[in-house]
Amino acid sequence: MSELSAGLRATAYVETEKLNNPKDKRPVEPGAPPPAGEDSGISRWIPALGVVLLWIVVWSFTKGTNTLALPGREHTDLHQTFTDFNNTLLASRDTNPVMQFTNSISELLRNFFDWAQRMLVRPNLPRPVPEIGWLGIVALATWVGYAIASWRIALLVAASFLSFGVLGFWQDSLDLLIVTGMAVVITILVGLPLAVLAGTNVRANRVITVVLDFMQTMPTFVYLVPVVLFFGIGVGGAVVSTLIYAVPPLVRIAGFGIREVSTTTIEATDSAGQTYWQRLLKVQLPMARKTIIVGLNQTILAALSMATIASYINGPGLGKPVLNALVANDFGGSFVPGVLIVVMAVMLDRTTTAASERSERVARGGGGNVRLRRILLAVTGVAALACVYLSRLELSLATFPSYTIGSTVSDGADDVMGSIVDLIGGVTESFRNAISYGFLNPLQSLLADSPWWLSGLGILGLALVFGGVRALLTTVVCLAGIWYLDLWHDAMLTLTMVLVGTVLVMVLALVFGVWMARNRWIDLGIRPLLDAGQTIPPFVYLIPVLALFGSSRFTAIVAGVVYAAPAAIKLVADGVKGVSPTTIEAGRSTGQTTWQEITKVQLPMAKGSLVLATNQGLLYVLAMVVIGGLVGAQALGYDVVLGISRSEEWGKGAAGGLTIVLLGVMLDRITRAAAEVRRDDGPGTRRAFNVRLPIGPPGR
């Protein structure tokens, strides 16, 4: 995979900083003081420690008072107002123009999904089987894989589709693919024009970027609350929530690719007298083709991730059996559909990536023997159509045969996990107790048991120290909103879990990131695993973690750590690897040890990447902690789950969703501000620059 494709694998700020002065090529001496105007790294921690110590002193006298705790299913007048708003809209669905419009869209989506099901997976009465049987579907999918990529991808696609049926989840798998496909098609129709606008108009790009920043800060689960209100549960809500979540990656990446087209080329086309549309269609879009396909790759994976989560609002697909098994704490029941979700994600990822690489080769004249390929495409296309015809005639080729392999695998997985739990249950219990009693509980006591005004002042003080005045102002607005929404105590509980999870993520990121940066072979061995980890939808991470740690807040924290670690590790590894070799050699010439080299040269000079990794860790863990409301994480995640599942609690769920958004925005802005490394603006120096390269889910 190219560097561009690899670099577009995480939603992150890719911050590039020149370690040497562009006019002064002398290396930076290790251990030398930082340039004037630049933080030494320690200067921020001293006042931060002072804020925390003062907070602890006041907390020791005031803990347990004015915490604004709202236990159980209690709700406030504001929450009831939200619920009444929900009830009013639902009651006016036949007369309210907005509700009529959204209901018509939802009905249109349901009708299309029903038609697709009758074509592919269920009887099209009076016909006792679908219009196209399983053999025809597998043959067509395999041919498409070969047509857009290669025979290797064709084999991967065939094996993936066959696994859906052999393991007993043919209809659920096809349903998930249909929902994902519907969302992706609509996303392309909406997202590509926005990407063109963002790529060709500076002012429009600024506005679009702000909106996309907000959308990508919002955890996936939160999308479900407003979608249920306007589009209902089932197919309509699942498709709408999926396409909303899938739009940002395509707009960001495709817009970035269009903006990156060489200015020299643009000027040449202008001098030739080309119009705007000629330049766009003949120059910018063709030259940005590969990046656009990468954006499509990320959009497809984002759609698959959200379509899986949408099972909570009765969205069809593999998410349903996973959710049912999670609720029942049935590892075996969730294992097979969880594995198939991963298989589907890998299939879609590898197919679109291979399509991107092939399009690049063809554009450069390296597509191989074109005549032979056309012949093979024609022959295999005829064979695929023959399979479609046969699947319409033969009952055994229309309905996938029943196998017991899936049940056998589920039972075996259950037995294996039971053995693992018996073997390491004491270790996991000790680990959970160590983290809970040594870190989680004390931090929760400080954040959640402090009076609301004390924890608010403490957070404001830390925001000022780490993020400056701009972060402080954003934090003031966000904390005011959290207080107004009457879920302050739940927000502090969620913040506690997010901070603990992020610390664990950064420990892993530092250990493995530095190891990868310093050892090429380790990097080659671990990076593919990290890429694969970022392909897996977040819902799947709950399956093994729930089996190991049971239903609790700690389960959500561990799942968040596993979900966030790949992106953070790669950011740290790339940041440390980017430290100037000249600087490292200068340090070695002074006799520095390996530990000194890491702690005094590489990590300080990769500080921007470390803060960016923290930013991503915070947001990824927050997203997973919210989903963890399904498995006993309580706090804001539970509020959202309650609001989605019970109409009388919709107001509290909506308040919980808004609170999560404010919490995410606050954490994002503080860490983003901390990541802005500044230098003197005097002669011979320049400031670091940031490029927002979006890429995909939280998740990718």
Automatic annotation (TrEMBL):
Compartment list: Cell membrane; Membrane
Transmembrane segments annotated in the record for this chain: 42-61, 128-147, 153-170, 177-200, 220-247, 292-313, 333-351, 372-391, 452-485, 497-518, 538-565, 617-638, 650-670
CDD domains, per the entry: TM_PBP2 (cd06261)
Ranges of compositional bias, category Basic and acidic residues: 15-28
Coiled-coil ranges (or none): none
Region (Disordered): 15-39
PROSITE patterns: ABC_TM1
InterPro entries: MetI-like, MetI-like_sf
GO BP terms: choline transport; glycine betaine transport
GO-annotated molecular function: amine transmembrane transporter activity; carnitine transmembrane transporter activity
Chaperone among keywords: no
A GO CC term assigned to this protein in UniProt: ATP-binding cassette (ABC) transporter complex
Location of the ABC transmembrane type-1 domain: 173-352, 491-671
Keywords for the protein's UniProt record, in alphabetical order: Cell membrane, Membrane, Transmembrane, Transmembrane helix, Transport
Topology relative to the membrane: Multi-pass membrane protein
Family (UniProt): Belongs to the binding-protein-dependent transport system permease family.
The protein's name: ABC transporter permease subunit
Source organism phylogeny: Bacteria, Bacillati, Actinomycetota, Actinomycetes, Propionibacteriales
